[in-house]
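Ticket #4471: structure output looks truncated?

Reporter: J.K.
Steps to reproduce: submitted the chain below (583 residues) through the standard prediction queue, then opened the result file.
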Amino acid sequence: MSTMLYKRVDYSLSKLLHDIEHGDIALPDLQRPFVWPAAKVRDLFDSMYRGFPVGYFLFWANEHLTDTKQIGVEQKQAKVPRLLIVDGQQRLTSLYAVLKGRRVLNKDFKETSIKISFRPIDGQFDVADAAIERDPEYIYDISELWKQGASSFRFIRQFIENLCNHRDVTDEEVNVISENIDRLYKLQEYQFTAMEISSTVDEEQVSDIFVRINSQGKKLNQSDFILTLLSVFWDQGRKELEAFARDSRQAGGERVSAFNHFIHPDPDQMLRVAVGLGFKRARLKNVYSILRGKDLETGEVSPDRRDQQFEVLKQAQASALNMQNWHDFLKTLIKAGFRSKAMVSSKINIIYAYVMYLIGKEDFRVDAYRLRQLIAKWYFMLVLTGRYTSSPETVMEADLARLRGVRNQDEFVGTLEKIINDSLTNDFWAITLVNKLESSTSRNPALHAYYAALNILGANVLFSSMKVSELLDPMLHANRNAIEIHHLFPKKYLKSIGISESKLINQVANFALVEWGDNARISDESPEEYFPKYASRFSSAELAEMMEMHALPDNWTSLEYSRFLEERRKKMAHVIKQGFLRL
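Returned output as attached by the reporter:
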């Protein structure tokens, strides 16, 4: 007969919350630290109120671990917890936050309150908002019901008195409201089932149990599994990833920080960087096994091998989270003509480009100037081709595989240059790219590459003496953006000549960057009306250069619209190519 590694224990909700409050139940951080969205918390309370089952908890009896997190952000009494929650942390944290009125950390690592409202007349739960706060039919924040010293009787009387001040309340309504509030109050008696894993079970077994449970229910991705291992075997590494992610979202002022205007990476994204650098892997399903100390050929698991692999990860993560490395890499994006997250259509391009940057720097010691030039071209190519759009892990795995036989910096540079040249062929520039520009979305990567090319080439904004790069500066904030997307053939003008389909009106070949003031003044005038007025600002040489940079065909104002789009796409592709060649 197999040995039982757990026992079943029933808890009331009040007992669970009491044990959290007194530090008997703590969080070993085996899951993501993020709380549920408020709507999911609302649904949890609604299910409990109606007597539905809402799942169980998995605890780990703790007799030897002390490096744990407590639920919530307030400090409770210092003691070694009796139980660590392995599965159900989101649910329990949500219950604790609402019933105790405590602040927790959201997905952006900021303190927040979860406020759930309740309408006693019909037993409806809602996420609290400003309208509900003004509505006397609602208990705005149900946390008030369980505050220390409050009783359901006093709370019900006060609620009904307040409601009577706003409308007439019948005796029948008084009874319904009283019963529903009392029923809500008694949710603290709701019974949960918990499975308590024995304290004799070691960390690796607990990690394995966690992964097995979640792989059968809630689907976690491979990065979650690896973060689970980090929580057990190298919790400091997990904390460093979370701290970096939190830091990237908060402007640092004078201090050194990960904050930037391109990307606010999540912990799992920075984990991908470390894994790519350390193991030259993109498929995380194999990395999970490697970090457990498993030999992928024999299947044998070795603690010594596990420790060795974690040492590799530790070194790689130190490089990935190094602030100098991080900001030196971000300069390559600026070098490539990209200025802010508004020009970023895919975060994975940045993450994988950072992997290549670090491999070049750490493994092959590529000269800093040479590396910046190379990665700028590499990133530009990624954006243009959408290399990692489909099956990104598979494609990146193949790119990393090409580096396994590389011996020095020249071979590293040559390998990436070959991939770039094989991707950006003459047919790509003349045919593929032109077709990519046949789109009606302003988030089109090829359009972002066009704007990047204008930055690289030092182009002025259309009808302006200001540079595109100056007005795309992410530090500029006003009521209106310094630079706006202008329809060269304005919407109302196109509709006046019978072109009303949005996909045609909003073709990217109809977009141009202008200062907001010019955009407002042009309004709905036809190109033949407004263009001569703005062209008169410039000399013939200046106007010719502006026409070339902004891909405007000769006599474009008098061209039939579909012909204009066709010609401009070709010219935009040419400008993009010139920008890339300038790199």
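Triage note (M.O.): checked the attachment and the full token line is present. Confidence is low (pLDDT under 50) at residues 216-220.
Status: closed, working as intended.
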